[in-house]
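Lay summary

Proteins are chains of building blocks that fold into shapes. Our project writes down both the chain and a compact code for its shape. Here are two examples, one after the other.
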Amino acid sequence: MPSIANLFHVAIKTNNLDAAVRFYTEVLGLHPVAHPDFGYPGAWLAAPGGAAIIHIYAGGAALGPGGRAPYRTGAIDHVSITATGFHGFIERFKKHGLDWREFNVREAGLWQLFVYDPSGVQLEITFEAAKESGPEPDMKNTSFFKEPMPA
């Protein structure tokens, strides 16, 4: 029987390729990997020791009406990725002047951080609570932050 095995990657359109690549490399810690030349600017980004999970492209196929890439995620609410180092990510967010929201899913043993990328894509970064150290997520700030303005 046919079956789905896993999510392969997420493709994100952007109006600012450099800002998007900086966000995914400097804030999230992904690294660029080789990608095919599709005839328009882009980047494939991978987790350490893994395959490319985020594909970013600009120009050409990324452009919508009016010559700009769409902003936000459309019908997709967010993209969730797993990670380690909950408090280290918060420090990176602070360093880069980013807003974020913390969440604790105690019943599932998960800590989460929510942040927007430069293209307005909401990311959920999920951590196994048992593998993290330091204080639990701050649930006092449960209101969501303002999303970034389009670049």
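And here is the second example, written the same way.
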Amino acid sequence: MFRGAYEHTVDAKGRTALPAKFREVLQGKYGGEGTLMLAPSTDGSPCLRAYPMQEWRATEDKLAAMDDFDPRVDELIRLFVGPAIEVELDKLGRVLVPQALRESIGVGRAKDAPGGDVAFVGKLKHFEIWDAATYREYTDKQRSEGKLSRALKELSP
């Protein structure tokens, strides 16, 4: 399972090293599979979801089983699957995040901007990639508003 939050730098070419703990999960649970699918967040957060291919296929199977004549399903597939991009880890454990996806989450908005910093956030079967400063602001705000404790209370039996 993907757990924890880690910050890494993105180089000028858009490459960033996957956290060692996440590479361990890919090696152990997913047999060293070096392909990830990057897709936009489903809740409107300014981040990307990164799925090992095995988890992505399971997600696609769930979506394919839905009624694609339902406009809600059609919209979900259009907005979630449509922009998804397959990326490969290189020999050094780095992944290239395409410029359009980096810009969509606020990393390197200007064309001439060098890399930037990203936060990798574990979400059990997948992980998120955020602009690091945006993620820090988001978590600070959520904690100051007491959202974590309210969510835990609501979800507790």
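What can we say about the second shape? The first helix runs from residue 20 to 28.
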